[in-house]
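Weekly sync, protein design subgroup
Attendees: M.S., D.O., the rotation student, P.L. (late)

Item 1: inverse folding check
M.S. brought a backbone from last month's batch and wanted to see whether the design step gives back something sensible before we order anything. D.O. pointed out we never logged the input encoding, so this time it goes straight into the notes. Structure tokens as presented (1106 positions):
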């Protein structure tokens, strides 16, 4: 750790130091450190589940600012200190930073004083990581099932099972160490690491799997404790008894269910009322585990010189249940008389040796007695090298003993030791793997460690190494010391109902029995303590809405509701009642958890994110991928159907969080992965222009904002076009200066995002601030998008009420946008009468979408109806395509060609060719053109007159001079009075909004000005007469004729269509005709309910080729 020397700085002035940035202030200029009592900076939750684990590096919003706060040395940085902490305050915050674990310490801390809660963590590697990991890894499988696994699979395959499971956990520990040393890891263990590395969706899914695995682990430990209790400690306590050998299994299972439920209830009560006692007894439970293991090694060493006396009785090569007879012999000698033994009476229906009615196999095979524990020097290891997998009910046999293979009586089956389940290599992997779990115990205690980033990797890896060596040596010792028939005897029936591993232990089998019982009970209590807190951590993160209730508990933080749910789920495992069936279930959940730990490390390593700087350096992405692959392989090796169920559970939780869970930003690796994938894809798209087959509709949609989106139905229509899997960019312009409008920009973006969420439009929002609206629109058209993901289509609304408005800026902005899109080679869509467009909740059950194909636009008119029909609103509408034939066109051939073209495009539509004959221009067309031009001329004169008055006011008030009024007075005209905005309505450019500086406007008139104004008034009648004698321009007459005739045809054919798509004429090259252009578009679309004006971008968007 670096060392800092703080040198006090003398200052004559005494400064007032208060709490800056909401943290504990340290005054380095005093002799001591002053802080606010009760203001302990810990890892906390903001109420939305976002743990402020990185809070030492963030400036708080509730900074206390005082006028006399800054001293003279920092006066230059006053503005920065408003929002950023001083270095001294930052260091103070880092010094006082703690992260109290979300485990059993909460209960203890609630009962401790403030002083004890402030005590710094001081646990080292041994007590904080190594021993807790040992206690969690060593468990019930070592004592109850490892001997059976060695006998069934053999030493070689048992070595392979241990190697696979321990290698998987070792690789996971390496990945976990890298993640755990990449910053401070608060409580939550694997859940916290995965959620902060892979995101809320993965974290929630794997967190639930980890919770279920821990809960089923509690059930497994309870079943193991009950098995020890009923089989080896107090067999007389069994409630249910088998009436015959067929009912033995059901009786055992029922006993397990009853006693397991009782034990679970008692443990839950203990956890509820006295968690601190569970933690204090943890050292006792660990001592039981260590003593039991040491006794096994001591017994193995002793067996070299003096093997324990546990003989087993064999009938032929079959193993007999030893507790059902006293002497391993067919006859016994009582005095000088040979009488049948108890074994004889078990196999024979008559006790008379002269006329016996015995089992055939009993008659033809001899009874022998062999040593069950030959010892380490016996050479039995050669016989136990290879496995002997059995079917359910198959009798345990010893190869090499003489035997006459005949079928015995069915009634005698219960006298032999037989397999209770069918065994296989994959089943044994699933049963053994829980004995390799528990590697997260160190990371869960990171808040208690003096140096977590050093202790977690060392302690965890050493614990896994230790347990792996113990398992390897145990496999060898069991195979070298114990007879194979005894090893395969799961419940010790051949050795008088003794625990098989206990027969090897020294000084007594009771050491193992009692030690394993207490260690198993302790492990079950630890699981019942940890699982509810894990569920509470997930619930408090608020990523799964329906789990919120489990985030609450007692006043001291105890997760009452979570404990209740944990007990109910553990009861499901108890009802299964078979240790061998429960073990693969929790193996699935733990393996999935470890899989995602490896994935998180691999993703972070490959992405090379700047924040990925773990102190643990002995990791590599290849090791993480290997660990991930091993986890996935072990899942399907253990039980493929359990693996599928676990994956489905995790997948459903993932999708639920994705659609219903709260949005979280934890800086996870999936976001970084998305960024890298987006970067790669964007660079790939830059290699060349997209092919026509890959063309997607990428829409730039302009909205008008007031306090909300003005026309939300436009956004609805855009969302209905998104079936083409394109992209939408919603843009808007705020008029003003950026420095003054930043807050308004943020509020506008949020309003647009809310509306996009309501309409379920996936895309982006961009609000810009510009001095003029048309400049902002031009900026958006030019700059929005990135690389190959730039927009290719612009959607904007129609300027309603443009005729009645005196302000031409709305329709001038509209036409200017049309020109900008044309210059940028972008397609344009203008929905008209948008208030009549359907919402996403409406359904058209019939009707047509009519396309009027006047000029070729690259296929946009063909593609848009197809995209609309992918949406549920328009799905049942039929498509009709109309095209216009002139006099010299062959309409019949045009229809055939168009039908062929649509067939090649794979678009189903009706085709119709409309013939438009040449006709004289009607009087209506002439009159309409004349009215249009007269209106334009009148408005132009009005605007000119207004502009002249404004310029005169500006000219006469621009200089500060004395003028003589007609009444002989002198007035002083100030230049400041020229800052009057009259509104240049005719201008193509918006005038800057300048507020007047005076409430009263005083104009000074001269004699010349008075005469000029009177002449203008006298000319008004002449202007009116000139307006009445105006003759329309012939080009305008022709355009109006086209609009009127085409409108008549469209209304005649498509008056009842659900939507009409129409080629949009381009604006005139001369800007003087802009107002006439708007009139032409109005005439063209009159009488139609829903119209979509479409203008192509100059490139083909649809092709007939595959």
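Designed sequence read out in the meeting:
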């Amino acid at each position: 750790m670096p060392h800092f020397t703080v040198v006090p700085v003398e200052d004559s002035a005494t400064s007032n130091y208060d709490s800056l940035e909401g943290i504990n202030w340290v005054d380095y200029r005093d002799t001591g450190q002053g802080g606010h009592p009760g203001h302990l900076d810990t890892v906390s939750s903001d109420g939305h589940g976002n743990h402020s684990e990185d809070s030492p590096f963030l400036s708080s919003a509730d900074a206390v600012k005082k006028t006399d706060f800054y001293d003279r040395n920092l006066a230059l940085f006053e503005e920065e200190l408003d929002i950023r902490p001083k270095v001294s305050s930052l260091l103070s915050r880092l010094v006082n930073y703690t992260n109290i674990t979300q485990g059993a310490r909460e209960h203890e801390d609630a009962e401790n004083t403030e002083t004890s809660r402030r005590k710094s963590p001081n646990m080292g590697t041994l007590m904080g990581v190594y021993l807790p990991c040992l206690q969690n890894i060593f468990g019930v499988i070592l004592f109850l099932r490892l001997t059976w696994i060695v006998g069934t699979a053999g030493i070689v395959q048992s070595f392979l099972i241990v190697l696979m499971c321990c290698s998987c956990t070792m690789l996971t520990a390496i990945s976990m160490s890298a993640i755990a040393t990449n910053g401070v890891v608060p409580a939550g263990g694997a859940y916290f690491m995965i959620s902060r590395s892979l995101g809320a969706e993965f974290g929630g899914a794997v967190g639930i799997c980890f919770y279920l695995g821990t809960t089923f682990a509690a059930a497994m430990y309870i079943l193991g404790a009950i098995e020890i209790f009923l089989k080896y400690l107090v067999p007389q306590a069994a409630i249910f008894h088998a009436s015959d050998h067929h009912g033995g299994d059901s009786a055992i299972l029922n006993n397990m269910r009853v006693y397991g439920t009782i034990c679970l209830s008692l443990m839950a009560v203990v956890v509820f009322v006295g968690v601190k006692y569970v933690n204090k007894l943890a050292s006792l439970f660990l001592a039981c585990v260590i003593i039991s293991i040491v006794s096994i090694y001591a017994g193995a060493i002793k067996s070299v010189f003096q093997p324990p006396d546990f003989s087993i009785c064999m009938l032929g090569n079959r193993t007999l249940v030893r507790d059902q007879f006293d002497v391993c012999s067919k006859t016994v000698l009582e005095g000088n008389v040979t009488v049948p033994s108890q074994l004889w009476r078990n196999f024979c229906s008559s006790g008379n040796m002269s006329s016996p009615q015995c089992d055939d196999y009993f008659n033809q095979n001899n009874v022998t007695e062999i040593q069950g524990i030959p010892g380490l020097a016996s050479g039995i290891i050669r016989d136990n090298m290879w496995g002997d997998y059995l079917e359910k009910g198959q009798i345990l046999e010893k190869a090499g003993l003489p035997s006459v293979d005949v079928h015995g009586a069915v009634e005698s089956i219960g006298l032999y030791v037989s397999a209770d389940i069918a065994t296989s290599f994959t089943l044994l992997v699933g049963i053994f793997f829980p004995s390799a779990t528990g590697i997260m115990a160190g990371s869960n205690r990171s808040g208690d460690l003096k140096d977590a980033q050093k202790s977690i990797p060392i302690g965890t890896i050493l614990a896994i190494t230790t347990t792996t060596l113990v398992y390897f040596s145990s496999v060898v010792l069991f195979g070298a010391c114990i007879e194979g028939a005894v090893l395969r005897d799961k419940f010790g029936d051949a050795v008088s109902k003794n625990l098989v591993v206990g027969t090897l232990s020294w000084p007594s089998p009771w050491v193992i029995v009692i030690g394993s019982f207490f260690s198993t009970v302790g492990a079950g209590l630890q699981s019942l303590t940890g699982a509810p807190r894990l569920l509470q951590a997930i619930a408090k993160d608020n990523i799964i809405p329906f789990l919120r209730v489990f985030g609450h508990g007692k006043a001291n933080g105890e997760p009452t509701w979570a404990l209740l749910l944990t007990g109910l789920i553990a009861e499901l495992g108890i009802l299964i009642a078979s240790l061998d069936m429960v073990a693969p279930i929790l193996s699935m959940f733990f393996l999935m958890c470890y899989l995602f730990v490896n994935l998180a490390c691999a993703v972070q390593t490959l992405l090379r994110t700047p924040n990925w700087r773990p102190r643990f350096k002995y990791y590599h992405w290849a090791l993480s991928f290997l660990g991930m692959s091993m986890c996935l392989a072990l899942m399907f090796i253990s039980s493929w159907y359990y693996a599928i169920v676990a994956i489905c559970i995790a997948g459903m939780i993932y999708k639920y969080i994705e659609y219903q869970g709260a949005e979280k930003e934890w800086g996870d690796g999936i976001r970084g992965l998305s960024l890298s994938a987006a970067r790669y894809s964007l660079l790939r798209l830059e290699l060349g222009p997209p092919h026509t087959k890959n063309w997607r509709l990428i829409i730039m949609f302009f909205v008008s904002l007031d306090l909300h989106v003005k026309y939300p139905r436009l956004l609805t229509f855009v969302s209905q076009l998104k079936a083409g899997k394109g992209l939408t960019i919603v843009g808007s312009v705020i008029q003003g200066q950026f420095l003054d409008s930043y807050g308004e920009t943020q509020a506008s973006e949020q309003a647009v995002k809310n509306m996009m969420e309501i309409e379920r439009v996936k895309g982006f929002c961009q609000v810009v601030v510009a001095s003029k609206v048309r400049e902002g629109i031009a900026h958006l058209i030019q700059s929005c998008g990135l690389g190959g993901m730039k927009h290719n289509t612009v959607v904007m609304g129609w300027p309603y009420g443009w005729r009645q408005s005196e302000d031409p800026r709305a329709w001038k902005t509209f036409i200017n946008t049309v020109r900008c899109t044309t210059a940028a080679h972008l397609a344009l869509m203008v929905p008209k009468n948008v208030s009549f467009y359907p919402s996403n909740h409406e359904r058209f059950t019939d009707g047509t979408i009519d396309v009027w194909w006047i000029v070729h636009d690259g296929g946009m008119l063909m593609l848009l109806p197809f995209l609309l029909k992918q949406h549920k609103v328009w799905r049942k509408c039929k498509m009709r395509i109309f095209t216009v034939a002139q006099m010299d066109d062959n309409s019949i051939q045009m229809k055939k060609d168009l039908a062929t073209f649509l067939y090649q495009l794979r678009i189903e539509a009706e085709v119709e060719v409309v013939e438009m004959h040449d006709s004289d221009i009607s009087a209506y067309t002439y009159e309409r053109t004349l009215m249009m031009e007269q209106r334009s001329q009148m408005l132009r004169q009005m605007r000119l007159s207004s502009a002249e008055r404004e310029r005169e006011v500006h000219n006469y008030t621009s200089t500060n001079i004395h003028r003589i009024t007609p009444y002989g007075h002198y007035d002083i005209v100030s230049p400041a009075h020229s800052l009057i905005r009259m509104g240049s309505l005719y201008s193509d450019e918006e005038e800057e909004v300048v507020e007047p500086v005076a409430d009263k406007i005083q104009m000074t008139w001269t004699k010349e000005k008075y005469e000029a104004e009177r002449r203008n008034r006298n000319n008004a009648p002449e202007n009116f007469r000139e307006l009445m004698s105006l003759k329309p321009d012939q080009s305008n007459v022709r355009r109006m004729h086209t609009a009127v005739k085409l409108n008549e045809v469209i209304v005649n054919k498509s008056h009842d269509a659900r939507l009409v798509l129409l080629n949009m004429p381009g604006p005139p090259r001369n800007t003087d005709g802009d107002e006439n252009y708007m009139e032409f578009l109005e005439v063209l679309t009159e009488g139609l309910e829903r119209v979509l004006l479409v203008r192509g971008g100059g490139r083909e968007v649809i092709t007939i080729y595959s």
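Discussion: The longest strand covers residues 727-735. Residues 455 and 1047 are 82 Å apart (CA to CA).
Action: P.L. to compare against the previous round before Friday.
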